[in-house]
Design goal:
Blueprint: H1 2-23, H2 27-33, E1 45-50, H3 58-73, E2 78-83, H4 94-99, E3 105-106, H5 111-114, H6 132-140, H7 142-150, E4 156-171, E5 186-189, H8 193-201, E6 205-208, H9 214-219, E7 225-229, H10 230-235, E8 244-247, E9 252-260, H11 261-266, H12 269-304, E10 308-311, H13 314-323, H14 325-332, H15 337-349
Parallel strand pairs: 1-2, 1-3, 5-6, 5-7, 8-10
Antiparallel strand pairs: 3-9, 4-7, 4-8, 4-9
Helix pairs in contact: 3-12, 6-7, 8-14
Bound molecules: succinic acid.
Length: 353
Amino acid sequence: MKTVAIITTFVLAGILTAFYLGFSPGETTRILEYDDEQEGLEEQLVIRFSHVAAENTPKGMAARDFANRIQAKTNNEIKVEIYSNGELYQDQNEWEAVTNGNVEMIAPATSKLSTRFPNWQVLDLPYAFKGYDAVQDAYEGKIGQALLDDLKGTNVKGLGFWYNGFKQFTNNKHPIRLPSDMDQLHFRVMPGPVIKSQFEALNASTSELSFNKTYRNLEVGFVDGQENTISNIYSKKFYKKQAYMTLSNHAYLGYAVVIHEDFWEKLSKSQQVSFEEAMEETTNWVRRHSIEINDAHIREIKRSSDIELDVLTTEEVKRWRDVFKPVYNEAEQEISNNIIEELEGIQSNYSHQ
Ligand code: SIN
C-alpha cells in the first residue's frame, strides 16, 4: 500500500512538472517559442560557395572571412555555405556549376579562366610581377577591371580578385636551380595556355590534373613534380611526396571571385551594397594575410620535413627570365595590346627593385 502511494506521488509530480515546463502558457513556453535564429528564414538567401583549396589557406580563410562579414552586414538575410577541398566541384567543372546556378559563388585560380578568356593569360606570365605591390596594381587596377569586363555577356559576374602567393617548383628527381634542370621532367599543371608554354620553354612535359588528385599522382610517381604556392604545397602535403623544392617565385597564383549573375540580380540594392563592402573588406584582409600564411607554412615545412630547399640567386633568375621570352611572344598574340601596355607600365614602375 505504501509502495503504491509512493509511485502515485512520483507519477503525479512528473505529470505536474511536465505540464508546467512543456504545456503551461507561462513564461517558459514564451521563451521556447521565440528563437531569433529562425527569424526570416523563409527570406534567407543562401550562397553555396564552392572551391578546391583547403580551409587553412588564403582562399579557404578568405571564404570564411567573407561569409562572416556578409552574414553580419545583412543581419543573416544572406548566408554563405562553404564547400572547400573540391567537396562539391573540381577544377574542371566548377565553372559550369556556377554558370548553371548549381552553386552561387566560386573562386578559381585565374589561370583556370584563361582557357576561356585569352586576356586572362596575362596573369600567368612568368616573372611578370616583381612583388606583391605589382600584383595588387594589376588585380586592383586597369588590368583587373579589363579582365572582369571580359566576363560580361556570360551569366557570371566578376567581383574581384583574392590573393594567394608566388608559385614554387617541387620535384622528386634532383635540385632545380637552372632552366636546364627542368629538361625531360614531367609536371602536374593547372590548365592555362601560358602555363603550358612556360613548361614547353623548359623542355618539360605536363599533365593537367585536378588539384585534389595531385598528391596521389606525386605519390605514385605519375608526375615528377608540380608548381604551386607554399600554402597549397603545405596544406595538401605535396612536400611530403617530394624531395626538392625551389623557391623560384616564378609566377603569381591568385583567384577570380565570381557569382552567378541571376543570383546577384535577385539581391536588393542594399544587399548588393553590403555584398560589395564585404568583398572589399575581405580582399583587404586576404591581401595582407596571404603573405603571413605562406610565410608560416614555409616555416612549418622547414621544421617538419627534410625536403631540400633551393633559393634562386638574382643571376639564376636572370637565366630563367631569358628562357621565358618565347612565352611572352606567344601570349602577346592572344592578349589585347592595352593589357600588355598596362603590364609593361607596372613592370617599369617596379624595375628599380
Ligand atoms: C587553388 O589554389 O585553388 C588550386 C590551385 C591549383 O589547381 O594548383
